[in-house]
Design goal:
The chain is an all-alpha fold. It contains 17 helices and two strands. It has helices at 26-36, 38-51, 58-69, 74-85, 96-119, 130-134, 136-157, 160-183, 191-217, 221-245, 251-254, 260-263, 269-277, 280-291, 299-309, 312-330, 338-352; strands at residues 123-124, 127-128. The protein has a two-stranded antiparallel sheet with strand order 1-2. Strand 1 (123-124) and strand 2 (127-128) form a beta hairpin. Helix 3 packs across helix 7, helix 5 runs parallel beside helix 8 and helix 13 packs across helix 16 (312-330). The chain is globular. Residues 3-22 have low confidence and may be disordered.
């Protein structure tokens, strides 16, 4: 059991911010979490901007596009929140969590740049993707630059444990993307293998982002593992819902072209669930459009009809809810506080996105 105390030996409770003294739900929880950590996030964003500077003009130009595209900054928020949950940041000069949050965001952004090139995506967060504007070569090389910056931030932190956690997560992300590529267009992929893919490509960085927060706070291993479990489960739920939204959201809500996964032949739980429960005619349809990659303009609407008929979105969301429960349970060893409640409600928000 992890029992955490602040420097004053009292349970660490965050106070202040827009959410103070009131219950928050859904997306409001994510906004309130950002408000709670506003000063830390401001410092983190400044670190991101500073580290994106280069004497090579294209790098800050592309970096400015990425910053303008925004995003929830969920991963760095998790690092900051985890550190604060463990009492770090109360004393003057405690800023390690700022640099590591920026490091986490650089790792994430680098993978996005590379993913959009591999997937030939033209939209990212509702805006033209970097590769669509600057070309594939620039996106790949700037992604490499951001990876390098992330490792500079790790070494600047000076902790071998932190470096071990974040470098291992970086390797796992790459493995997850390669594994996804190897399962692409393969309807015989077991659900367990699909879950392995999303753990690698998404959950691993969520887990690392949370764990390093506990590490910089100097708390016990139980606290580290609890936050790592929270991040893993949150990441799994987040990606499951993302995969569901590709067949259930409109483009403006999703922030990318609806049906991208379908057009790319990606194996996700909505497809696996619909295929498993489908008629022989429906299975032949999936084999043609996913395995043989023979698609017409009418195929996506038909795929959406089958997905709905086989209740594949509900099945996917229910699996996400299981991970949400695990994430909430992982927080049980921390004393009650407003910050803990915000982290709890943030994970619940992941499934509410699919409504």
């Amino acid at each position: 059991m992890c029992v955490l105390v602040s420097s004053s030996s009292e349970p660490y409770v965050v106070s202040g911010g827009e959410a103070a003294g009131r219950e928050v739900k859904g997306e409001d929880a994510l906004k309130a979490l950002s408000a709670y950590l506003a000063d830390d996030m401001t410092a983190c964003n400044q670190a991101i901007i500073d580290r994106m500077q280069s004497s090579v003009p294209l790098i800050p130009q592309l970096g400015a596009h990425l910053v303008a595209a925004g995003g929830k900054r969920l991963r760095p928020l998790l690092t900051l929140a985890s550190a604060r949950l463990c009492g770090y940041g109360e004393k003057e000069g405690e800023t390690r969590h700022i640099g590591l949050a920026a490091c986490v965001e650089f790792i994430h952004t680098a993978t996005l740049l590379h993913d959009d090139v591999v997937d030939e995506s033209t939209l990212r967060r509702g805006m033209a993707s970097a590769n669509a504007l600057f070309g594939n070569k620039a996106s790949v090389l700037v992604g490499d630059f951001l990876f390098a910056r992330s490792f500079q931030l790790m070494t600047a932190d000076g902790s071998l444990e932190v470096m071990a956690i974040l470098s291992a997560a970086s390797a796992t992300i790459a493995e997850g993307e390669v594994l996804q590529m190897s399962t692409q267009n393969d309807l015989s992929t077991p659900i367990e293998r699909y879950l392995e893919v999303i753990h690698g490509k998404t959950a691993a960085l969520f887990a690392a982002a949370c764990r390093v927060g506990a590490v910089v706070a100097g708390h016990n291993r139980d606290a580290e593992l609890a936050l790592e479990q929270y991040g893993t489960s949150l990441g799994m739920a987040f990606q499951l819902v993302d995969d569901a939204l590709d067949y259930a959201a409109d483009q403006q809500v999703l922030g990318k072209t609806v049906g991208d996964d379908f057009r790319e032949g990606k194996i996700t739980l909505p497809v696996l669930a619909a295929y498993e429960q489908g008629t022989e005619e429906e299975r032949q349809f999936w084999k043609r459009v996913i395995e043989d990659n023979e698609q017409t303009e009418a195929d996506l609407p038909h795929a959406l009809e089958i997905i709905a008929r086989r209740d594949a979105i509900r099945i996917t969301i229910e699996r996400a809810r299981e991970y949400v429960g695990q994430a909430v349970e992982a927080l049980a060893c921390f004393p009650e506080s407003e910050l803990k409640n915000l982290l709890r409600e943030t994970v619940l928000y992941t499934v509410e996105r699919a409504r």
